[in-house]
Structure formats: C-alpha cells, structure tokens
Specification:
Structural class: alpha/beta
CATH superfamily of the largest domain: Type I PLP-dependent aspartate aminotransferase-like (Major domain)
Radius of gyration: 22 Å
Low-confidence stretches: none
Number of helices: 15
Number of strands: 15
Helix content: 40-55%
Bound molecules: D-serine
Strand content: 5-15%
C-alpha cells in the first residue's frame, strides 16, 4: 500500500490515515479519466490543508464581520487580483464553495425569480444548474433550452454542434433576460462571439459557464469569454487544476450585486484555506508551462479520440477540441450501456463516467454514452502515445468484459503504465 506525505499529520487517526492511503493508491495506480477531475499540485494541496481553515471571515477584504482578518484579507485580495489578471476581468469573487453555488449566486444577483434564462439542455450537454428539472434552478427561474444540431454521417459535417439557429430562434421567441453559454459534456470549442451577438439582438445578459474549460482559456488554448460576457462562472478544480471550489468574474457594474449574492445571499464564512489554494493555482496557471500543459491536453484528446474511433467507438460531434471525448457506445457494441462500460472499466483500473449523449434513448442512469477526459493524466505527463495505448486497453476490457482473466490483465497493464506516470512521483520520495 502506498503512503502520502500528508500521512504524518494524521497518524493519531489510523482509520482516516488508512483511507487516505487507499485513495492515494487508487489515484496513482489506476487511470483517472473523469473529464472534470485533475491532480492538484502539492502547493495547492498544502494551502488547502493550511492553518487558514481555522479562520472565520464573513464579508470581504476590508469589510469583515470578525476580527483578526489582517492576513486573510491579504490572501483573498491576492487571489482576486491574480484571477482578474489571469482572465483580464474587471472583478472577481473567489468565495463560491462550488460551481453550482457560483451559478445560483449569479442568477440570484442579476435576475428576479421567474425570469427566463436560455441555456443548454442537460441531455444535450448542459449542466444540472442550467435548469434541469432535478435542480432548484428550474424551480426558481424559467429555463428555455437549446440543443445541438442533428447527427450526420458526413464526416465533414458531423453535426451535434451547438445549434446557433436554434439559440437565435428561441431567444427571439422567448426574450430571455439571460443567455447562458457553457456545457458539461460537449467536446467542441464554445465560441462566445455568436452568443454575444444573439444576446445583444434581444437585450439579454450573457453568462458563460466555463467550468470545464477555465484552464484551457487560462492557457490560451480556447477563446476567452470574458470580453464578450457580462459574467463568467467556473470551478477551480477541473482543467484549471486548483482546489475544489468555484469563482465568478464580472463587469464592474455587476460587482456589488454578485458579491452580495455570494455573501450573505448564498453562503456564510468563506473557505479561506481554499481561497489561498485558489491563489496558488491562479499563479500556476499564469506560467508559460501551463500553456504548454493545456496545449498538450488538447493534443492528447485529439489522439485519444482518433484511437478510440479506430477501435470502433463513435465520437459524438465527430471529434474533440478540448479536454474531453464523448463516446457513443452503440457503434462499438449495441448492447453495451454507459453504466456497464463504466463498471467494467472500473474493474480494469480505468476510471470514467457514463454520460447521456444527444437524443439518448436510454435513461441518465443507464445511458448510451461514456465521457472521458485527458486533463488529469496529462498532468501526470502522459502524451499522445499513452492515450493511444489507453484507447486500446479500454476496447480490450470492454470486448472481453465477461472474461475476468482478461480484465485482470488489462488492470495489470494499466498499473504498469501508471507506475511510469505518477503525478506525485517525486513528492512521494520526500
Ligand atoms: N459534475 C461535474 C462534471 O463532472 O462535469 C460538473 O459539475
């Protein structure tokens, strides 16, 4: 069993120590292909586990409801400054505990209950907080949903791309107060320019949820939505590779409303240890090495998509331009569901998540799709060659899913690959 350098801090709690050691082992000996995950740096993890966890700091720098916040004020100011510089934004709020909190705070700040928001439908690639019937957002606001264009068998025009004619038509028909761009299962670049154009045609605000691609934007691999948007929300732990949490960027005119919606509107005391870790990650994301990293993420995804295609999987939207590949499993095997594929791959040491695909005939719990991402294993140093090998391992495990010996063999090949690409390799030697 492996051990992390943090274990020394908690040796008086063998149960938790043992659980952390097991998770350390899992993360470093199996493949992490969940598109929304990454390996945070040791510096980010150290700040997350720092003394700042002890401090109450309700309010904002210079306007706290508790004493003793001299240092915390500097921490949060540093995080805000680094973030506005990174994306060229007027104002940043770094307090949201998560992306969901950030999104709800934006709606709360800029809309009245019942106002209309035009957003991407969950089963077409949108997020729960984009008005899913299961989310509180759909109870408080009136969501109208756009989707993607129909699938086509013409490789030059594969379809399953954001349907801007549909966005424009719905915007003119429903006159939403806000148009929301951004997705959670969409493998193509989301161009903010046509969204801005449509928002201006109908006098709507434009919000861009860049949770998945914030790192790709910071690294210059994707267009920056900030100059086009009134508000940009995101999580800090996906491609941005920071601690688990959320953040909001906005134009100066909305700063006061956004801040009031986050605190006291949504949250109480901010997690200043997480904010310090966010500050660390914003600095990391501003370095030239981060641009190299995000370009490699995209190159790896393209190689992965091509290799998966060669194994018989269908790439939804015909390929990828970001950190994820969304697979339609039916072409590989009509009987194979996303649920079964995820479970088989788990047994083989390949961590993925099942996902609905556009017009999926199966339920969100079963699905016909699988979502895989390259951000985490790219952090671990993997390149195109390794992703081609992973595609072959996935196909092998899924083809032989009823053969335990074959699954054990794939798991052993996965472990051998991971041994050469441990994201915390040098760290474990401390
Ligand atoms: N659940 C996250 C994802 O995996 O995309 C988004 O919140």
């Amino acid at each position: 069993m492996g051990s992390s350098p943090f274990d020394a801090w908690i040796t008086n709690d063998p149960e938790v120590t043992s659980l952390l050691a097991r998770e350390w082992e899992r993360q470093t000996t199996t493949l992490q292909l969940i598109a929304s995950e990454n390996f945070a740096s040791p510096a980010v993890m150290a700040a997350t586990g720092s003394i700042l966890t002890n401090k109450y700091a309700e309010g904002y720098p210079g306007r706290r409801y508790y004493g003793g916040n001299q240092v915390v004020d500097e921490v949060e100011e540093l995080a805000r400054h680094r973030l506005t510089s990174l994306f060229g934004a007027d104002h940043a709020n770094v307090q949201p505990h998560s992306g969901a909190n950030a999104n709800v705070a934006v709606y709360q700040a800029l809309l009245e209950p019942g106002d209309t928001i035009l957003a991407m439908r969950l089963d077409q690639g949108g997020h729960l907080t984009h008005g899913s019937p299961a989310s509180i957002t759909s109870k408080w606001w009136n969501f109208v949903s756009y989707g993607v264009t129909p699938r086509s068998d013409d490789p030059a025009h594969p379809g399953e791309l954001i349907d801007f004619d549909n966005v424009r038509e719905l915007a003119h028909a429903h006159r939403p107060k806000m148009i929301l761009a951004g997705a959670t299962a969409y493998a193509r670049i989301i161009d903010p320019a046509p969204f801005r154009e449509i928002a201006d045609e109908v006098g709507a605000l434009l919000m861009f949820d860049s949770a998945h691609v914030a790192g790709l934007i910071a690294g210059g691999s994707h267009p920056n939505p900030v100059p086009f948007s009134d508000v940009v929300s995101f999580t800090t732990h996906k491609t941005l590779r920071g601690p688990r949490g959320g953040a909001i960027l906005c134009r100066e005119e909305f700063a006061k409303k956004i801040d009031s919606a986050v605190f006291p509107g949504q949250q109480g005391g901010p997690l200043e240890h997480a904010i310090a870790a966010k500050a660390v990650s914003f600095k990391e994301a501003s370095l030239p090495s981060f641009a190299t990293y995000t370009n490699q993420i995209v190159a790896n995804s393209k190689a992965f998509a091509a290799a998966l295609g060669a194994e018989g999987f269908r790439n939804v939207s015909g390929g990828t331009e970001n950190h994820m590949v969304l697979l339609d499993l039916r072409q590989f095997d009509e009987e194979l569901t996303g649920k079964v594929a995820q479970e088989v791959l788990d047994r083989a040491g390949i961590t993925t998540n099942r996902n609905t695909i556009p017009d999926d005939p199966r339920s969100p719990f079963i699905t016909s799709g699988l979502r895989v991402g390259t951000a985490a294993q790219t952090t671990a140093g993997m390149k195109e060659r390794e992703f081609a090998a992973i595609a072959a391992m996935m196909a092998r495990a899924l083809r032989h899913r009823d053969d335990d010996a074959e699954i054990v063999q794939v798991r052993s090949d996965v472990a051998a690959l991971c041994a050469d690409f441990n994201p915390y390799g040098s760290f474990t030697k401390l």
